[in-house]
């Protein structure tokens, strides 16, 4: 089999890239190692930036998002018995975010591409990416137990942090910069209407908590735990008690309901450079990971593939490779800005093991500053709703 663009991985990055290329008349094949039900059911991110929503609209993939997505014009910060709402439109020239789950973005993209006759190949595990220094790279994969080869003009690694594409960058070229944070997130889904209309990010002496949602009927809740925490050690009651102890304000507690899923996610920051070598490009989590506190992982994956789709389309239409040549530098500027914001949100709101009172006072001073200064609040708001795409 031959295609113009071989896409390794059918998460949000790979699926949106194939959708954007399809709309531009550039053919591609998505190879995804898991089955469709698994990919559509994987619980992950929930907040879409303005520019992510714009990109999905541009891809003709926002019909359900525009009906069912929840537009949010602010978030609430809580700390030291105080609270402050950061208003997005007034601080950002009218920008906002949407709560719409990654699972739904993935379902919408798969349905559209399938209807267009360009369905991803599921159960197709890529084993090797070769000849990226030539104009005819090859991708070896196992499909339903059979070894197959896909030849192509370009390969894009959208295969997440544990994929194979990153390791296909030659050792002498690849640099990975990493920070492992000393805490994880305990995340739960609960069948109960959210207790607050907007997301709440809470700093507390017991550690960080985040109140989010998936729909008017379903709450999504997170709280900081030590690395290595086993979710099975926590009863439902203990989870709700902990969330209340960290987020309650003026004695108002959360409405409780059945917890339907739970998991623990370690927090990690990582960037691999360059994001391109020869005919191989990296996009999304394959190139970078951010801790989730800034709600950026999915959004950063989307901005990479918007830049890449534009560059590949330009190459096909004009023969000019200038945008492809600039891809890595163009993306990395936004990647590092987003790494900084995600680290800022994480270190401002979490409590490190053995954290000193001095460090806690610095965090509280920073949160007080955001409440007191529209300039400090605007810096948070502009990053949270997402900087304009490159
Ligand atoms: P992925 O979604 O990881 O997709 C990669 C795809 O490649 C997968 O479908 C995988 O099966 C496939 N693949 C891997 N190897 C191969 C191979 N060899 N051959 C073929 N296919 C392969 N972000 C937030 O903002 N908020 C959150 O709450 C949040 N929670 C998260 C929880 C978890 C457990 C994880 C891992 C991430 C979370 N993120 C969160 C980050 C966000 O979900 C990611 O940034 C986003 O999924 C990135 O999309 P992607 O397409 O680049 O990668
Ligand atoms: C959600 C996840 C995040 O990482 C975040 O910062 C806000 C919301 C969510 O899953 O709803």
From TrEMBL:
Note the InterPro entries from the entry.
FAD-bd (IPR002938), FAD/NAD-bd_sf (IPR036188), RIFMO-like (IPR050641)
Give all residue intervals belonging to the FAD-binding domain.
3-341
Q: Which domain of life is it from?
A: Bacteria
For this UniProt record, the keywords arranged alphabetically read as follows: FAD, Flavoprotein
Q: Which PANTHER family match?
A: P-HYDROXYBENZOATE HYDROXYLASE, TRK SYSTEM POTASSIUM UPTAKE PROTEIN
Q: What's the protein here called?
A: 4-hydroxybenzoate 3-monooxygenase
Species per Swiss-Prot/TrEMBL record: Streptomyces pyxinae
